[in-house]
Amino acid sequence: MTSDVDAPTGESATADSPAGRRVRSRRRNGQPGDRPRLTRRPRLTRRQRLSRWDVKLSPYLYISPFFLLFLVVGMFPLVYTAYVSLFDWGLLSGKGEFIGLDNYRDVLDDPVFFKALVNTISIFLLSSGPQVVIALVLAGLLDTRLRARTLWRMSILLPFVVAPVAVAIIFGNLFGDEYGLINNALEGLGLGQVDWHTNRFASHVAIATMVNWRWTGYNALIFLAAMQAVPRDLYESAAMDGAGRVRQFVSVTLPMIRPTLIFVIITSTIGGLQIFAEPRIFDDITATREGGPNHQWTTLTMQIYNYGWGRSRDLGEASATAWLLFLIIVVFALANFLATKRFAKGGGR
Amino acid sequence: MQQTHRLRRLLALGTAGALSLAVLSACGDDGDDEAGGTVQLTIATFNEFGYEGLIEEWNAEHPDIQVKQKKLGTWDEAKENLYTKLAAGSGLSDIEAIEGDAMPAILAESDAFEDLTDPELDGRWLDFKAEGGTNSEGQMIGYATDAGPEGICYRADLFKKAGLPTDRDEVAKLFPTWDAYFEVGEQFVKKVKGVAWYDATGGIAQAMLNQVEYPFEKEDGTIDVENPELEALYETITSTVEKGLSTRNAQWSDDWVAAFQNDGFATMPCPGWMLGVIEGNAEGVKGWDLADAFPGGGGNWGGSYLVVPKQSKHPEEAKEFAAWITAPEQQLKAFAAKGTFPSQVEALDDETLLSATNEFFNNAPVGEILSNRAKAITVQPYKGQHYSDILQAFQNALLRVDDGSASPEESWKTFLSDVESLA
Predict the structure, then answer these.
(1) CA gyration radius for chain A?
(2) I need a labelling partner for A10 at 20 to 30 A (CA). Which of A63, A237, A256, B148 fits?
(3) How many whole angstroms separate alpha carbon B391 and alpha carbon B387?
(4) Sign of CA dihedral B393, B397, B399, B405
(5) ipTM for the complex shown
(6) A44 contacts A30 by C-beta, under 8 angstroms
(7) Do A179 and B86 touch (CB under 8 A)?
């Protein structure tokens, strides 16, 4: 690669120039007077060859680190998980007999799997939806002329940098069933207590709160970055047309940041379907943190862990669950893609 | 132009280089922090072993073998960590503490652990503890640390409110059997509103299970949870939950910990190691005492072992340290620190043990009481390699009854199918 750097000025400049210019420059390098024969290519010098390779290969080399890494940490696990899922494979005992799709059947026969599926979707809807809306509003507010703007923008990211363990302690105190802060407050107001760790829906709300607390600020910053790129004269003309703040936000800001919106929705969908840490931390009830004694808030990623590292220590079933989750995410991503494509067209970019 | 191109290339090169470096270093050995011939050992414990002072003592005496302790909150966390790293083949500490109930499962994986057999240590431990650490081939895999003879811890101030006797000798007479214990409990919850009788359903279950000869498995190691004794036990416990005797809090949960500060309950089964836990959770609360009695005869709850995984790079030193710290003299100091009752024969009639009192528990003669409790133990339950896993499933069954998410019958059915999936 170092030889590229030494390449002479003329050639090196061709690295990212369009094909047309490359042809011209080659002709210039050809011998003058001697009319080039079109049927045979002229013999290239070593330097020229290097230069051509550079043009052809370099872009791939530049992007290769990502793909190499992806191959190692993304593709390989994916394929290997599929392989493991076809075997009787214990955590300690290792690879056993080939059993075909038996692991998939066992997982689909397990009522806990469907509980986990419903929990996952419920927590996903309760987290990703409000998260995107609140983040949009926050970003809209931060995009205005505020005093100490940087301070506000920085502090919105604070929840994101707090250590998960500290988060666990804070929310453990908030959502305690008997001695929790929220229930104490409700009691004080004469309202009934909420059984955060018993009631299925209440537990989902509590977990979604933890997720939103962590990710809303992060998404708001992404939105903010997109909003700052919106040309200010659009707002000026909108204001001249008599649009108020809200109207400006809806009719100017939102359409202008549509690509970012789509990006955030898709990443938060992928993240939302893989929620693991929060519900696990939330379970201080069962010794194995498996998502409540009645699996009230077990998510699919937790269920992968429960199969593989819980009481049954069965990596085969864990892998099968992982693949089922993968397929579910693909379905969601496709649905998302189609929906957002429509959304993007509807706006008429 | 030229400048920026060169810069871009350099940047790309640099990024690629940095990435590959990061990958390389991530794959590298995480480093053995050996400095100048000193051996670094780690010991992983959970809960309170009372080893802090002892490790300092060892480190001062052995400059060439320095020991560090890694503490985890509960055994269940330690168990998860242990299995994950056993499967990974690396990452375990040189010495790992194992909860007594899980020792049979560890013995089934003897290949992964060093044989610690040492004829010099014959007769150091109580027979049942020594047997518990020895596999079917006669290799001693684990050195026993403590035992868990149980008394009943109670809140004298709350007993007073209920018109019950408060003196520990009088209180001891209240609980000859579990039926008697639950009956007094019913009287108590009627008189003192808002206070439960015992701390956690799961805790009572542990105490009762430890008096059953074959709780979950038959003598040949096959799983048998549909035995009449276990069914009766389940029914008794769940009926007391319905009578309001339980806090319905899961043991070790935030609510359970908070209940110590909020007069949540009046009694709990108390193995020696629990004394340190109560003292920590109930800091500032006055009225705790320990009665020299246990319903249904004596019982042993817990008590752990130290094992040396084959993964250890210094098995000899690890073995030496494990042997040292489980010696009677050392275990007596651990008892003084955290109340972990020794499982070493010589320590049991040691004067310092017998005369030990505990200020937090109203100066109760805890050494003498726990010795008496150890002598009262008649049944050692059979615990096969599935015991620890089935126990977790059983605890979950009780938790579903606790939180009302299932009726006792439904919950029992789920328990049966959970156990089914283990085999």
Answers:
(1) 28
(2) A63
(3) 6
(4) positive
(5) 0.81
(6) no
(7) no
